[in-house]
Amino acid sequence: MKTEVKKIDNTKREMLVEVAGEVVKNKFEDVFKRIAKEAKVPGFRPGNAPRDILEKHYATSAHEQVLKELVPDIYNEAVAKENLDVIELPHISDVKLEREKLSFKATVEVSPEINVKNYKGIKIEYRKINVSPDEAKRSLSSLKESQGAKELDDNFAKALGYPSLTELEAAMTRQIALRKDDQQRRRIENEVVEAVTKDLNFKLPDSLVKRQLDDLVRHAKVDLAVKGAPREKIDEQEAEMKKNLQAEAEKQVRVYLVLSAIAKRENIPQDDHMPRACMELLFREAEWKEAE
Question: How many whole angstroms separate alpha carbon 152 and alpha carbon 175?
Answer without folding.
Answer: 18
